[in-house]
Amino acid sequence: MRIGHIVGMSDDTHTASSETNTTTDGFSRRTYLSAAGSATIAGLAGCAGSAGGGSTPTINIITWEEYQEMEENIEETLDVNIEITPSSSSSEMFTQWNSGQDEQFDIAVPNNNLVPNFIEADLIEPLNRDIVTAYGDMYDKFQNLAETQFSADGAVHGVPVRFGWYGYAYDTRSVPDHEPSYSIMFEEDYVDADLDGEIIMYDEANKTMPVTALYMGFEEALEGDRMTFSTDQIQQMRDRLIEQKPRLQGYISSDPTFIQEFQQGNFLVGHSGRNEIIEMRTQGADWVEYVVPQEGAMAWYETAVVSSASENKDAAWEVVNEFIAPDNGAALAKAGFSPSVNPAISEELSSEENSLYGSIDPSRLDGMIPFKAISSDVEEEYESAWEAVKSA
Amino acid sequence: MATESQESRNTDETAHESHSGLLHFRTVERILSLSLNTTAVVLIGFLWIPLAIMIFLSFAENTTTIFPFEGFTLSNYAVTVSDGAMWNAVQGSLLIATVAASIATVLGVLASLALTRYAFKFKELYRTFGIIPMVIPGIVLGLSLRIYFQEILGILPGFMTVVLAHSLYGIPFVLLIVTARLYSFDESLEEAARDLGAGPLETFKDITLPVIAPAVGAGFLFAWIRSFEDYIRALFLSGPNTNVLTIWMFSKIKNLDAPELNVVSSLIVFGIAAALAIAMNFGNVSGYVAGTVTEEEEA
Amino acid sequence: MAISDRTEELHSSLSQILTTKQGKVAITAGPATVWILLLLLAPMIFMVIVSFLEVSRETYDIIFEPTLKNYQALFDSSLGFWESPFVKALLLSYGIAIISTILCLTLAFPLAYLLAKRGGQTFKVVIFLVLLPFFTMYLVRAYSWVLMFGQGGVLNSTLLSIGLISEPIELLNYGVFAIIVGLTHAYFPYMLLTLYASLDGIDFSLVDAARDLGASRVAVMKDHILPLTAPGIVGGSLFVFVPSVGAFITPRFLGQGKVQMIGILIEGRVNGGYAIGYASAASMFVLISIVAAMVLTFRYVSIEELGGG
């Protein structure tokens, strides 16, 4: 967001604002106080806690916590100084960058469905394929997805790093084997077990609404690069979720809480991503089974983007290239229990690790629908609907 | 004190009440005393439950649940203590909290004096605005302050901005406590000092301040803790180089590192326990904090 | 020598300023005024202005066309006024906050009284024990409560294993009750210390004198103690009430996402689609309602009438 931007006139907001730090109407940022004063204060602010790196550029990254595992490795390989700020939410990354943090950070790694927002808010750079050489090693599937989901003006704007998908998990000790389907969450008699108050849904509109849509047969709206529900469909999904609510144990979005409560026996069926379950398996919980429902699964892939306001764009793209390099990719996969988009990492992992989060047959991803942003026309209704569900 | 004369009027009416009570005076005293003590014990127990669980889990193998218990281990501590980012975050937050709380305390104490002693225009407005920083939802305060700093003042988020924001956020806490204390402050003490020739600064330093010290201390403490624990404002107002503990911790949530959370919190508690214990026994801080109470030790 | 000369000059000129009433007000009320003008005014103005503006859904930029849409959207619901998420969340938040405040007050007052009356060893030990949990990080405390509640939580498991119940109790499951417990626990020390701070100023020898002269405990409480501690009660209540209204970590964990308080709603709007117009309008509402309640309370507990002197 730029305070001085007056929208509502021309559609082309891709101005030279990032180059010259002025916006279309000449409102220039950062000139309200005397430049000397603010420069001093800014210098003090920046100085607290950081050592000057001389000629090596500092690349500031806001990303998931496990990226810190690669920090040293990348710093050695590339002769840059890496500062990682951990974040726990993609939407928070976007809110931050949109309110000015894009000037302080070079790289962010949000989930794929948020990247279009970054593009539209004019925050990120098109991909520099000359630098990100490993891009071509990615599974074709992801190269295609990147082209569809984050293209603007004919260029791709982000690099997928790791991926996963959402299905559901259940406690095999109490829930009998069954044909995997979202019906288990929405219908009482789908399995021969009392699941009243034993179901968990994900606490985020973008994860739970699409699942409801799939259950209700609205797959068509999930094709294309945005979710294009009609107002009527949204209201139907909302009502269905409100109907479901009494049967829920609750909504959870935090992985450790999910795992903690699953282990405690607080619920039997949980809407979750794959990595939580893999983690539980590695901790010895062999009673948990993870399945992909027949209606389809939503897939995510975290994506590295570079800020248009970055002063070290080339160095930033080099760092991004490292994210998908085999050795760093393997470290990331291990830290987060999610596979990398680069199949070459399987060489760095043991066969057991590979089966869990290493080499995944790309065809497994064929039936999956990537998470996507909601279309702008219905965004308001979509958000209100979710709010109404949470208030019910 | 004004209430004295009121009481002597009331006693005539109530004097016979104690004789006509059903229970013996002593018994009532004992029951009250017992229930007060019991309440105190129960309350302290209640306050300690999560703390006990946390410390327990920090030493446990099983990281996410209490049962099934898997045995004690020090590995959680080993992992956390060697985490450089953790120490940076702790240091950063300690510094931010201390500076911010200090500013808030100075401003707040002065403002409290103004509110309780002097009449001036817009006094109610002043007090309202003094409390508003605490009332504005954190995410909105954080976001708007950030935009203000960055777009209007040209200050990039970092250490300074967090400190400024937290110092603002801490003022209401100091204000409310110190004004509460000042209301029951016996001004005759100050008058006596002035009669004896003390100037306003001396009076404040030697008479007022020691008496209200517990309240000032409590205000500082609140402002400090609110800063130390704050996530949402710090999130918006910190920069890539600012080390904030809550942000570090929140990222651990997403990454399933619960053991580190328990360990860090336990370490903080151990540290504070030691600091408090030392301060309370040596340096007579408790005497200072207890202030006038030590004069009135009674069974 | 020069330095101490200067400090003396400073000292005497300060003392001089402090003789006039204007000087006194300037020195005491001044600094905070400056701070508030510099730091608080701008964000508040921003919040007010943005609440009348919309954010473009296409570019996530602010559109500078004043509109009442945000305020309308707060109350707009195809299901009816009382079903609008904002109204429901607001009322729920107030309800939970009021209950937590009352709980804190009734639990903390006796303890604060005890602390203020006794001294010495008791005081030291109790303060130590009360302050320590205060320093645990809020986030981790919330986690521990998550362990306690729930069908398979520590509370239910313990009760089940000692045979007091045969099935997990619904009350001990996540929900409003758990949130109230969590909030009360989180903000209890604030109430306690604030009450203590104002009880600290009470001369208990006077209380004893009154009792000796035959005043009943109730009368003493009503006529002497409560009036003097009223500001402390108000202050402590604000410390519990205000953060409880806007809480979002506690309800998210202990409500298991099923209980939508106003803090969660506002945060959801900011992070979901950058709808800061709506979020600002909602925040304005919360701010104004709380400030109104505060002003009324302070009027009731009038500044001038109190005070020992």
Produce the secondary structure layout.
The complex is a heterotrimer of chains A (392), B (299) and C (309).
Chain A: H1 17-20, H2 35-47, E1 58-63, H3 71-78, E2 81-86, H4 90-98, E3 107-108, H5 115-120, H6 140-149, E4 151-152, E5 155-156, E6 159-171, H7 183-186, E7 199-202, H8 205-215, H9 231-244, E8 248-252, H10 255-264, E9 269-273, H11 274-282, E10 288-291, E11 298-306, H12 313-323, H13 326-336, H14 351-357, E12 369-370, H15 379-391
Parallel strand pairs in A: 1-2, 1-3, 7-8, 7-9, 11-12
Antiparallel strand pairs in A: 3-11, 4-5, 6-9, 6-10, 6-11
Chain B: H1 2-14, H2 17-20, H3 25-58, H4 75-81, H5 84-117, H6 123-135, H7 138-153, H8 159-183, H9 188-195, H10 200-229, H11 232-237, H12 245-254, H13 258-281, H14 285-290
Chain C: H1 2-17, H2 21-39, H3 41-51, E1 54-55, E2 62-63, H4 69-75, H5 85-117, H6 120-134, H7 138-148, H8 154-161, H9 176-199, H10 204-212, H11 217-245, H12 249-254, H13 262-271, H14 276-300
Antiparallel strand pairs in C: 1-2
Helix pairs in contact in C: 3-14, 4-14, 5-9, 5-11, 9-11, 11-14, 13-14
Textual characterization of the structure:
The complex is a heterotrimer of chains A (about 400), B (about 300) and C (about 300). With about 400 residues, chain A is of the alpha/beta class. Chain A folds into 2 domains: about 50-155 and about 300-360, 3-Layer(aba) Sandwich (D-Maltodextrin-Binding Protein, domain 2), CATH 3.40.190.10; about 165-295 and about 370-390, 3-Layer(aba) Sandwich (D-Maltodextrin-Binding Protein, domain 2), CATH 3.40.190.10. Helix content of chain A is about 35%, strand content about 15%. In chain A, strands 1, 2, 3, 6, 7, 8, 9, 10, 11 and 12 form a 10-stranded mixed β-sheet that branches. In chain A, helix 9 (about 230-245) runs parallel beside helix 15. The longest helix of chain A is centred in the middle third of the chain and has 14 residues, at about 230-245. Chain A is globular. Mean pLDDT of chain A is about 80; it is low at about 1-55. Chain B is an all-alpha fold. Chain B has one domain (about 85-295): MetI-like fold, CATH 1.10.3720.10. In chain B, helix 3 packs across helix 13 (about 260-280) and helix 5 runs parallel beside helix 8 (about 160-185). Chain B is globular. Chain C starts with a helix and ends in a 9-residue tail after the last helix. A two-stranded antiparallel ribbon of chain C has the order 1-2. Chain C is an all-alpha fold and about 300 residues long. In chain C, strand 1 and strand 2 (about 60-65) form a beta hairpin. Chain C has 2 domains: about 1-30; about 80-300, MetI-like fold (Orthogonal Bundle). In chain C, helix 4 (about 70-75) packs across helix 14 (about 275-300). Chain C has helices spanning about 1-15, 20-40, 40-50, 70-75, 85-115, 120-135, 140-150, 155-160, 175-200, 205-210, 215-245, 250-255, 260-270, 275-300; strands spanning about 55, 60-65. The chains are: A alpha/beta (about 400), B mainly alpha (about 300), C mainly alpha (about 300). Chains in contact: A-B, A-C, B-C. At the A-B interface, helix 2, strand 2, helix 4 and helix 10 of A face helix 5, helix 7, helix 8 and helix 12 of B.
